[in-house]
Write a structure and sequence with these properties.
The chain is built from 2 helices and 13 strands. A 5-stranded antiparallel sheet has the order 1-10-13-12-11, with no helix packed on it. A 4-stranded antiparallel sheet has the order 2-9-7-4, with no helix packed on it.
């Protein structure tokens, strides 16, 4: 007689393990360009390809002489416009007052633009980053709009993890009702040493890759 064992089936949640591989990328990846023209007269010794830089760190300075002259001229023009406005107000010339007031506003705008141009002769890192590509050095003349460097942010790293459409319903991502992030563990092997990081499941990209037909789940790691 066959021996049979019966088990009652119970409906309950079952943990599902999904493994995926992705490439680590910086959250911000920018080409930093200059907004002014001039010769590079100073470069930070730490501004080197592959080196880490801090937010607001001064990386290089462009010769400011042309922009200092422009600022002085703008200040003189503003003083002249304000004098003209004061004169027409004394004479109570209503038509001339409107024109003089417009002249003062325009002179203030030109002075503000000159101040911005002068400030832009100092190139600073906009955030904590690694210098991926360095395209300028001491003594080089740069034109406005020229790319100076490529920066990779180090504040947050992202990993795009491909998922099959059939796996997507089993994945929770984002924040729950209490504001807690869904988490996962990322691992990587360098030589014979394995490292691991706790990451948060930030989002699921709202598109499907047309080549592989997979979705991408984006994990984020702070200060990687």
């Amino acid at each position: 007689v066959p021996l049979v064992q019966a088990t009652a089936v119970q409906l309950r949640p079952v943990p599902v393990t999904i493994q995926s591989r992705g490439i680590v990328t910086p959250r911000r990846n920018i080409e930093l360009v200059t907004e002014v023209s001039g010769r590079v007269i100073w470069v930070d010794p730490g501004f080197l390809q592959g080196e880490e830089v801090r937010a607001e760190q001064l990386l290089l300075r462009i010769d400011p002489i042309d922009y200092e002259v422009a600022l002085s001229a703008a200040k003189a023009a503003l003083a002249s416009a304000e004098l003209s406005l004061a004169e027409v107000r004394v004479l109570v010339q209503k038509a001339a007052i409107t024109e003089a007031e417009a002249g003062v506003v325009a002179a203030k705008d030109r002075m503000r633009q000159a101040q911005v141009d002068l400030a832009n002769t100092e190139i600073k890192a906009p955030f904590n980053a690694v210098v991926d590509i360095k395209r300028v050095d001491l003594g080089q003349y740069v034109q406005a709009g020229s790319a100076l460097m490529k920066l990779l942010s180090t504040g947050v790293a992202e990993v795009r993890l491909p998922l099959l459409a059939s796996d997507v319903p089993f994945v929770n991502y984002g924040q729950d009702a209490e504001g807690n992030w869904q988490e996962l563990t990322l691992t990587a092997t360098f030589g014979n040493i394995q490292h691991s990081w706790k990451a948060r499941l930030a989002r699921l990209e709202r598109r499907v890759d047309k080549q592989t037909r997979v979705f991408y789940l984006v994990a984020q790691v702070d200060k990687p």
